[in-house]
Specification:
Radius of gyration: 20 Å
Oligomer: single chain
Number of helices: 9
CATH class of the largest domain: Alpha Beta
Helix content: 25-40%
Shape: globular
Strand content: 25-35%
Largest sheet: 6 strands, antiparallel
Structural class: alpha+beta
Distance between the termini: 36 Å
Number of strands: 14
């Protein structure tokens, strides 16, 4: 299959490139950097430099690449790219499985997403007014990952903020979990794979454990009753000291350490390709997943000779 993957300068894309190539797929990669200045660009069969997803030419460029290389499946990687593609999904001339634009618009707003789930799962308490009697965080409503978060200690007043842009939540301390999801085109889950973040460096998980936690899987199924998430996505939780799993956020893309799920489930990408082409799934969740695996990550170097310098 001819597959087009963006943001190949990221470790997220590199993992997908590596395992799609092992499956025999032909990979066209795109990124804002020049060829050779990211490892992912060298790993692809073909490489095209892209404008930023916020650029007015982005969608036209994507469509031209898809037509030029007879792309059958397009996978946007970072949050802004997925948002932009979902907004223009009718213009994309090949298969591309992402949540619909209305769903993405809701879940990318951390405040709207959190308030929509408080009645069905545990969510860190949202504070409409500041409360100096507890530790809390000030979050950007449209923040990505750990960016846009300010920790505020008990007894300290929160800085002035605009409620249209930010909101306050009580702080929850505990173990961090990410749950990798793969759902078919109507949002039925194929894989719901929890992993415990054992080691994090620079905000990136470098050591994780794939765990079979039925309670966490059940929590995710409740979320999927509210939000249909076709394709790749991941949901983050913190297991508090009280033993409860607290919802943190939904990411509507393949996760940075999603390679752990690829390694634990040999048919993960084959299922993805099947549902991307319109297939539905009615089987058991996690049909071939092996649990209790420790996945560690490491750097690998690639060399490009810049003969134009």
């Amino acid at each position: 299959m001819n597959i087009f993957i963006t943001s190949v300068g990221t470790a997220t894309s590199v993992n997908l490139i590596k395992y799609f190539k092992k499956a025999g797929d032909y990979i066209v990669g795109g990124d804002i950097n020049e060829y050779g200045y990211t490892a992912g660009s060298i790993m692809c069969h073909e490489y095209v430099q892209l404008p930023y997803a916020t650029d007015s030419s982005y969608i036209d460029k994507i469509c031209n690449i898809i037509r030029l290389f007879n792309i059958e499946l397009f996978i946007p990687i970072n949050d802004i790219e997925v948002f932009k593609v979902a907004e223009n999904i009718k213009d994309i001339p090949c298969k591309c499985i992402v949540p619909n634009f209305d769903t993405i618009s809701k879940i990318r707003d951390k405040y709207i997403c959190s308030t929509s789930l408080v009645d069905i799962i545990d969510v860190p308490k949202i504070l409409e007014e500041d409360d100096i009697n507890t530790d809390r965080i000030l979050r950007d409503r449209l923040g990505v990952g750990s960016k846009g978060i300010t920790f505020i200690d008990k007894g300290t007043e929160a800085p002035t903020y605009n409620k249209d842009d930010s909101f306050l939540q009580e702080t929850v301390q505990g173990e961090e979990y990410t749950v990798d999801l793969l759902c078919d085109i109507v949002g039925h889950p194929i894989y719901i794979i929890p992993r415990l973040r054992i080691e994090v460096k620079g905000g990136v998980a470098t050591k994780v454990k794939i765990v079979k936690d039925e309670e966490l899987i059940s929590q995710v199924k409740k979320i999927l009753e509210v939000y249909k998430l076709p394709g790749f996505s991941n949901i983050q939780f913190i297991k508090g000291h009280d033993g409860k799993y607290y919802f943190i956020e939904i990411n509507y893309r393949f996760s940075g350490c999603g390679v752990g799920s690829l390694l634990s489930s040999p048919n993960y990408l084959e299922h993805f390709k099947a549902v991307s082409l319109g297939g539905s799934y009615n089987g058991n969740v996690n049909p071939d997943t092996k649990f209790n695996l420790i996945v560690t990550r490491y750097y690998e170097e690639m060399v490009y000779e810049d003969r134009n310098s």
